[in-house]
Amino acid sequence: MRAGEVPEGGEEQPFISHLLELRDRLLRMILAVGLVFAALFPFSDTIYTAVARPLMRSLPAGASMIATQVTSPFLTPFKLTLVVALFLAMPFVLYQFWAFVAPGLYRHERRLVVPLVISSAALFYVGMAFAYFVVFPLVFAFFVHAAPEGVTVMTDISQYLDFVLTLFFAFGVGFEVPIATILLVWTGVITPEAVAKQRPYVIVGAFVVGMVLTPPDVISQTLLAVPMWVLFELGLFFSRFFVRSDEEAAEDAPPGSVAAAAGPSGEGPHGPAPAAPFQAMSEDEMEAELDRIEREEAQVGPELDAGNPAAAEKLRRVAELREQGDERIVRALLYEVLAEGDETQVMVARNILRQLDEDY
């Protein structure tokens, strides 16, 4: 938010009111999740059976899942129901976050954030559905058939739940790649052309992320990495429609910055601003530049003539004597300026004295 402006939605509120509003919205989120959980808890066993169906279909005849801990038959479906309640209440939770930050956004930001929030939630659900309907049958069939002869596969229910929740989260987050790409382009962090040049690194990174987020098997790693790559390409395609125009960048630039001074299309007040290539300076050029800056700082501008003429003349004399290296007389003149000059002249004298002390 730019300084001196109040976004649409009213006047600025004190910090305490924001904390109170955040507390109320967090309580609403917790209440919503609690209500959904209370409605689903009677069906917790049915929900767990549905989640365990991909593994049960792959188990050999006569095999089943087991519970190795005393509390697992109760706590495992309880934990799964709580997670499902959170996932189902996610649209309401995201709405509460949106309602909290919306008053601090501008109209064009609101128009963009709403589709991004909706699409990110939808992609997360699509990632979970992809894991359940595509990844689970392939992975569990591979694991069961890869068991050595004489080994009966009997998976613990709590360990199975941890396994599938990890995959659900990994694929849900992995399917957010298009949103991340669009946000990076929209905020101006990177351009679509620069993103396209990083494609080889993105492909390698997708397989590394798949290796870290999924269990140690090639199948689940590949099934996560390939969709991430495809989604990256989709995000790269759609990000070209979210490139910020020069007018928007100039509006959001701080006053006095290069972007604000250049204006739309990079034009300055007197026409297009030429782009000067950067060239490193040598040590001698750097010392010469520093000396030039010090001389300019020591020079007396026309605005000092509006004060005490005698003090202005002494400041000019100081500039001449500094080049000659007569520091004793320079300090004496500066002390006289401190005693008889106006506010601006005194400030200049103090700055010069500070420079002399630092050089000493």
Describe what this molecule looks like in 3D.
It is a single chain. The chain is built from 16 helices and 2 strands. By secondary structure, it is mainly α. The chain has a domain at 286-359. A two-stranded antiparallel sheet has the order 1-2. A hairpin with a 2-residue loop joins strand 1 (267-268) and strand 2 (271-272). Helix 2 crosses helix 3, helix 4 runs antiparallel to helix 5 and helix 7 runs parallel beside helix 10. The longest helix is centred in the middle third of the chain and has 39 residues, at 107-145. The radius of gyration is 33 Å and the shape is elongated. Mean pLDDT is 77; it is low at 1-11 and 253-278.
List keywords for this structure.
360 residues, mainly alpha, two-stranded antiparallel ribbon, 16 helices, 1% strand, disordered N terminus
Would you identify the regions where 5 or more consecutive residues have pLDDT less than 50?
1-11, 253-278
Shape verdict: elongated
Give Rg in angstroms.
Answer: 33 Å
Q: Return the structural class.
A: mainly alpha
Question: Would you count the extended β strands for me?
Answer: 2
Return the average pLDDT rounded to an integer: 77
Strand content: under 5%
- Give the biggest beta sheet: 2 strands, antiparallel
Number of helical segments?
16
> What's the helix-strand series?
HHHHHHHHHHHHEEHHHH
Distance between the termini: 45 Å
Helix content bin: over 70%
- Major sheet strand order: 1-2
